[in-house]
Amino acid sequence: MSKHIAIIGGGPAGYVAASHAAAEGANVTLIDPHPLGGTCLHRGCIPTKTLVEVCNLLAKMRRAETYGLHLNGSIEADWPAMRAKAGQVIGLLNRGIDGLMADRKVVHIQGRGRIVDGRRVEVRGHGMVEADAVLICTGSSPIQPASFQIDGKRIATSDDLLKWDTLPSSLLIAGDGVVACEFAFIMHTLGVQVTLAAMGEHPLSFLDQDIASVVQREMRKLGIEFIGRCLVERLEVTPSGVAAYADGQLVATAERALVAVGRRPQSAGLGLEEAGVAVGQHGEIMTDSLMRTNLAGLYAVGDVNGRLALAHAASAQARLAVDHALGLDPAPLNEAAIPWAVFTMPEIGCVGLTERDAIAKGHIVSCGRFDLRCLGKAQAMGELTGLAKVVADRVSGRLLGVHIVGAHASDMVHEAAVLIRQGATVHAITQTVHAHPTLSEALLEAAEDALGQAVHKPMKRERPHHANTLP
User: Fold this and answer.
1) Are 323 and 398 in the same domain?
2) Pairing with 452, which of 44, 47, 254, 438 sits 20 to 30 Å away (CA)?
3) In sequence order, what are the residues at sequence separation of 6 or more whose Cβ sits closer than 8 angstroms to the Cβ of residue 69?
4) What is the pTM of this model?
5) Which residues are catalytic?
6) In 3-state terms, what secondary structure has residue 293?
């Protein structure tokens, strides 16, 4: 007899769990009051990356003459048309998800679910759903400090910004993380004067310092102002716009403000306390390495468990939880091998340990670096800004981390993700022939540089005598 899996939430964790469970022969009930796809599809990854792609095209068109092209007339951004384009993409992908669910005979109940115990969900207006296992996949939402007076118009979150009919002349962004930095580059490209104010010393402080430094340098070159070591305590609407205060002092003003100070798990209203589900101090549902909660039969997957706020990590966790619920004995995820992608301009792809974290974990490290501007492909593309960095253990040669900033970095990083997952050494990169001319040669050169053997940069004079020994 087929098992029955009930899933609360239809984002990248929920609909992937439903699709995978149905493919494994389970009966699936997916509970979500909203159209399927979650924040990622409707308010996050997909619409913002559509905007990033449009902005990349716009930036290239503005420097068309450097490619030998002469465009007649002015090049202007049409914000309503850009929003319409994002809406088209959302609609197409949403129909695709609905089609997948229909193909797999997943029952979609449009209602709000509430946990009764590890195998029962009460759905408002639809009664009780009983299952062999229940997955909570309700995602996260933007943090909204009360002192920020968020109204969605003058002071907004990323959810609100995508609904704006017009763009402001200036934008203050509170935050220095992924959402803050991606929107900083988007808005700047569209002609908005941008200021970021955040408590970090530099933007994207969780990244490898060399990569974050490239982003900060690009911000400075473009005229995006970054105010670091500045904890914004409150935002106020003024007759002329918005004012930001830190330590009781006015630190910045703008026509509008974007609040991007992080996201919080959406666990409220699920009946967790009444059911006895263990929840952390920030609302995250506590899970083990197999995504199990403290209630038998109940799993929590994706942003709501607070482990990794990444859509692709949520999908991977979903498959893992389903496999365990169906008795397939899966291995826990290797979270260190899950890559990050940040769609600034240029974009970022990274996986594994940063140099700082590797040293903190006791590794004696050897790092290699290579500037993308030294590649023939980068010169041909006119995409010169960027860096590839390899972090390796000097003693064993094991690849610990790879960090790339530049054109197509989010695509290139997966070669490294496979190798790190396999526990490979840096020689696995240097001994693999990379096609020429490609941007992926930057990773090859950075790996060679970690060995003191980079062909297209000055030699490290302390390079080893033997190719298989790290300096």
Assistant:
1) no
2) 438
3) none
4) 0.94
5) 436
6) coil
Tally the residues of the chain: 471
User: Radius of gyration (Cα) for the chain, nearest Å?
Assistant: 24
Q: 407-448 pLDDT, tens per residue?
A: 999 999 999 999 999 999 999 999 999 999 999 999 999 999
Q: What does the block give as tokens for 243? A: 């004012």
Q: Report the Cα 169 to chain-centroid distance in Å.
A: 27
How many angstroms separate the CA atoms of 471 and 467, rounded? Answer: 10
Q: SS3 string of 102-141?
A: HHCCCEEECCCEEEEECCEEEECCCEEEECCEEEECCCEE
Q: Please, which residues have CB within 8 angstroms of residue 65's CB and are 6 or more apart in sequence?
A: none
248, 277: one domain? no
With b for 16 or more beta-carbon neighbours within 10 A and e for fewer, the 175-193 pattern comes to: bbbbbbbbbbbbbbbbebb
**CATH number, domain containing residue 422:** 3.30.390.30
Give a yes or no: residue 349 inside a domain. yes
Q: Return the pLDDT at 462.
A: 56
What whole-number distance in Å separates Cα of residue 53 and Cα of residue 72? 22
Q: CB–CB of 85/57 below 8 Å? A: no
Scanning the structure block, which residue is given the tokens 């100070």? 261
Q: Is 464 domain-assigned?
A: no
Please say whether the beta carbons of 330 and 32 come within 8 A. no
- Report the C-alpha gap between 16 and 412 in whole angstroms: 24
CATH number of 222's domain:
3.50.50.60
Task: Tell me how far apart the alpha carbons of residues 43 and 142 are, in angstroms, rounded to a whole number.
Answer: 11
327: which 2 tokens?
């008795």
Q: How many CB atoms lie within 10 A of CB 408?
A: 19
First and final C-alpha spacing in the chain: 59
Q: Measure the CA–CA gap between 287 and 307, rounded to whole angstroms.
A: 9
Task: Judge contact between 136 and 14, C-beta under 8 A.
Answer: no
| pLDDT at residue 290 greater than cutoff 50 | yes
| Token pair recorded at residue 24 | 């494994």
In which domain, by residue range, is 404 found? 337-450
Residues 385, 295 share a domain: no
20 shares its domain with 125: yes
